[in-house]
Design brief:
- 2 copies of one chain form a homodimer.
- Helix content of chain A is 42%, strand content 14%.
- By secondary structure, chain A is α/β, with parallel strands linked by helices.
- The first copy, chain A, folds into 2 domains: 119 residues, Aspartate Aminotransferase, domain 1; 211 residues, Type I PLP-dependent aspartate aminotransferase-like (Major domain) (Aspartate Aminotransferase, domain 2, 3-Layer(aba) Sandwich).
- The interface between A and B is large, with 51 and 51 residues.
Chain lengths: 359, 359
């Protein structure tokens, strides 16, 4: 649903229509200058040949250092989506299930279904401030549960669970012997910095350069996982995507040196925008206050038909994502706060205006 | 086996060892200058954002024109390998089978197995000049046959089947209602130019920019297929690789404008190298004369142990691919002719020398 909307908008844009895209989690900040320079230098050095399906050693070593593991635990992927696809494919057989906390990134569910596995959706509530009910989690686990997915901060809520809550999930997963896949795409965007996770026996880390570094269209991410899983992922790369372009890996390898500084900068941007957005939307909508970037996930007043609202909004040149793309949240919308303040303010004012119109 | 060898050599190279890599089908010619320029311009224009999972319209339209179809038939992929993986995944369920003429690119077989489908290998013989026995082909097809793969020119033999032979396969596939997947990675390298295939109802075309344009590490290819298959492939892209970097698509879109001229140039290079190689190898080995680039697939004298031969060769700083990576051809080796003439001649002389040593 999210992807269909996206394709529809690409089409509108191809036809010359201008749309303010608050439907897509795409940072407006540019990648580090040094990444561009390294890309160009690498091309000039002829680093555009076939290469290892594991990824370049230099980059894998830097990533391994972040996560307290070895380069052989790290596999470079064209975006974290491919990493997540691989990890789900490697863990889920037909009729197995994966635990997914909802609202959730639609790809998890779609990937499970494409593997003929069952996404076992644990619906969380905004009224509970998205807290996880551990009793329900324990009940949801059965002998066919082969993976638990934790996306914290979460897309679409931008809610990062507390460190104790996360630790409890990890411990529970460990006790049950079920690998925990952590999708850390947004971790650098926590308003209060959280350090990189350290790789444990039971942990599968997926991450991307897209959000922190604004490198969405560069298509580069990674997984950090136990060595035998990494080995299988390399084998899967060999028969699918082969390798990520080396010149892009070199650029990412340069970018990662600036991670601390860069993340600090974008964290501030995210926080400021979230405050601005909250200040405007509070006039007409309920939402939980995020503790990370990039999104708000407000609830529309009950009498509003979300479909009609989204169409009206699109007629006004603004796209946001429908809540039911992320689970059973049809009264919600996901607003991506990825625009400069002036544009963002105007767009958010318009959103409130259209809410008022539709009421 | 091919990929393990490759990873082993990347490791040796990381350790500082120099290897003349005749094991890998990687052209030594550089991509068109205009492709580099367009890549840089596109980056400067900020064409590095999330984009359509189908690929950029501009590029898809140019490809569609080549194959006499519509842009909606074309999906851009990170290399043809991903295109082939998708097409096999979309056609093969567990226990279905795919007909593969052998010797064959190992990825076909590995992909089938990863999908729990059966690769049905039709072994061809160098003594028959790799001719296809139509009676065996008809016998091999059963109700579980869901796709036939034709790779002409073939990796590893560089044999392109005659146009009549190809037409016969197409007709047979059509009559049986079995889609024919044509992997045309090497088609531009036929010593006598063959025009691009026109998309038919029963045809699935996969191609890459890697070989013709020497853009191996740029990871860009495409499929041209019936619209409903393209639609499914886009959906699969959405949950896996998302999209190929737009700046790379723009570069490919520029490159394709020079396809005729560029292909003409590399065709001549391939032809000349094949002649040189044949002249040297004929001293000690049997092989069929290729009618396309990039390989020779000679047979070692019977008394030579191929494993021992390859190790000796690697000690001499030269890698070639073992024949059994491509099917039951353990006495063969695949030599990639992707080096400048002086280097190639020296390496081929050395290969002959090592054959003599091992005899």
């Amino acid at each position: 649903m999210l992807y269909e909307l996206s394709e529809k908008i690409y089409k509108l844009e191809n036809e010359g229509k201008r749309v303010i895209r608050l439907d897509i989690g795409e940072p407006d900040w540019r990648p580090p200058e040094s990444a561009f320079r390294t890309l160009l230098d690498s091309l000039e050095d002829g680093r555009d040949r076939y290469a290892s399906a594991a990824g370049e050693l230099e980059l894998r070593e830097k990533i391994a250092e972040l996560h307290g593991c070895d380069a052989r635990n790290v596999v470079i992927t064209p975006g974290s989506k491919w990493g997540i696809f691989m990890l789900l494919k490697l863990h889920l057989k037909s009729r197995d299930n994966a635990i997914i906390f909802s609202p959730h990134w639609p790809a998890y569910e779609l990937i499970c279904k494409s593997l003929k596995a069952n996404p076992r959706i644990l619906k969380l509530k905004s009224e509970d401030n998205w807290r996880i009910n551990f009793a329900s989690l324990e009940d949801a686990i059965d002998s066919k549960t082969k993976i638990i997915i934790l996306n914290s901060p979460c897309n679409p809520t931008s809610h990062a669970w507390g460190e104790r809550e996360e630790r409890n999930i990890m411990e529970l997963a460990s006790e049950r012997g079920i690998p925990l896949l952590v999708d850390d795409a947004y971790r650098d965007l926590c308003f209060r910095r959280r350090k990189e996770r350290q790789l444990g026996d039971n942990l599968l880390i997926a991450n991307t350069f897209s959000k922190t570094f604004g490198m969405t269209g560069w298509r580069i991410g990674y997984i950090a996982v136990p060595a035998e899983i990494a080995h299988k992922a390399v084998k899967l790369n060999q028969i699918t995507i082969n390798n990520v372009s080396v010149f892009l890996q070199m650029a990412a390898s340069k970018a990662i040196e600036e991670k601390m500084k860069f993340a600090e900068k974008v964290r501030k941007i995210c926080k400021r925008r979230a405050e601005i957005a909250a200040g405007i939307l509070v006039r007409r909508m309920h939402f939980t206050h995020p503790n990370a970037g990039l999104y708000l996930f407000p609830k529309l007043p009950e009498r509003i038909d979300t479909g009609r609202f989204l169409r009206r909004l699109l007629e006004n040149g603004i796209a946001v994502a429908p809540g039911n793309a992320f689970g059973e949240y049809k009264q919600h919308i996901r607003i991506s706060l990825c625009k400069r303040e002036e544009i963002l303010k105007k767009a958010l004012d318009k959103i409130v205006e259209v809410v008022e119109e539709c009421e």
